[in-house]
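Backbone shape codes:
===
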Amino acid sequence: MYYIYSLRCNDGHYVGCTDNVADRLERHQKGNVPATANRLPVTLEFYFAVEDKYKAFAFERYLKSGSGRAFIIKNHFAKM
């Protein structure tokens, strides 16, 4: 199982993909992920479970796009 997740950072949001949400969140919170190390603190807003690895990464890519951010806002997954 793969998970697409969204974090609230001190300056906005971060979307990522992992096979272990708890471990990845802990690494983000400890500053061990370069993409969010300077954006602490981070909190988990939501995550989606997807069985197929390639579909998970494709959905992550979509959520990082303009239409993906609009999808998140429209469906009230996060306050952007």
User: Anything to note?
Assistant: The beta strands are 2-9, 12-18, 43-50. The first strand starts at residue 2 and ends at 9. DSSP finds three helices and three strands in the chain.
